Amino acid sequence: HGSLELFARPASYQNPDSVGILFVISINPEECEKSGIPYADVSEIGVFQGNESEILFTTDAIFCINSVRPIADHYTDRLWKVELNLTENDDNQLKALIAHEQKENQNTGWARLSSLFLELRQPEIAEQLYKTLLQQTSADRKQAYYIHQLGSVYYFKNENSKAMSNFKRSLEIFEKIPPPNHHYLATAYMHVGNVHNQMREFSKALALYQQAFEIQKISLPPNHPHVATSLMNMGSMYCDLGDYHQALSLYQQALEIQKTALPLNHSNFVE
């Protein structure tokens, strides 16, 4: 395969930190035409003039990962084949997943971009953006949120002292803000608990997870994904504390909620 020999295999050989990946994309022309997904065969007019089968996709094309398999090679174990399908615009699973993610992240503008960088594991960029946003606002709720997000950045970087300081500072502000602020309070309690968990202070973490759960019980529907997250957090702490029966009960409750509240292809089901 030309792409394997020209690109993927050399990438895995030349740099010990690189992984060679061969993407194999399947396209159903009839389905693409029906759902309005544009793509073009440019093999005869592209740079390589017919020597390669070039397909041009739009920048907003979305692909479904069908499989990820290693490619056998005598010299490296860092060679992989990823099989993709071009996803239709009216794919029901994709619609459900996008709707869920949009509901979970209702930020706009720079705040949403900052959150995205954190999800993409680029905490340094997220940190600078959140610090800039914090300097530009005087609203208590936004200040508390940006301070809290900085705590998330430091938590990601395993800087537990800074994370704890920011989470507690944001919690103090949220506690003074008039309702409705239940969501922010519960999240702040949960994230302070996460730091205690990371520091292996399981009893303290459990108490904070329970506080978050009590707030969620009165402010959220019983089948909300955040309720499931709290149940899983508490289950994890009971497991670490050796109470496996209680841990199993909480995990089962969380799973039942997730079955009704999340798309079937959501990553939480793997966890």
Main CATH class of the largest domain? Mainly Alpha
Number of helices: 11
Q: Please identify the structural class as seen in this structure.
A: mainly alpha
Determine the strand fraction and express it as a percent band: 5-15%
Measured distance between first and last alpha carbons = 36 Å
Strand order of the largest sheet: 1-5-4
Q: What integer value in Å does the Rg equal?
A: 23 Å
Fraction in helix: 55-70%
Order of helices and strands: HEHEEEEHHHHHHHHH
Topology diagram in text:
Blueprint: H1 2-14, E1 20-26, H2 29-35, E2 39-41, E3 55-57, E4 63-70, E5 79-86, H3 92-104, H4 109-119, H5 123-135, H6 140-156, H7 160-176, H8 182-198, H9 202-219, H10 225-240, H11 244-261
Parallel strand pairs: 1-5
Antiparallel strand pairs: 2-3, 4-5
Helix pairs in contact: 4-5, 5-6, 6-7, 6-8, 7-8, 8-9, 9-10, 10-11
How would you characterize this protein structure?
- The chain is mainly alpha-helical and 271 residues long.
- It folds into 2 domains: 89 residues, no CATH class; 173 residues, Tetratricopeptide repeat domain (Serine Threonine Protein Phosphatase 5, Tetratricopeptide repeat).
- A hairpin with an 8-residue loop joins strand 4 and strand 5.
- Helix 5 runs antiparallel to helix 6 and helix 8 runs antiparallel to helix 9.
- It is elongated and about 65 Å long.
- 26% of the residues are buried.
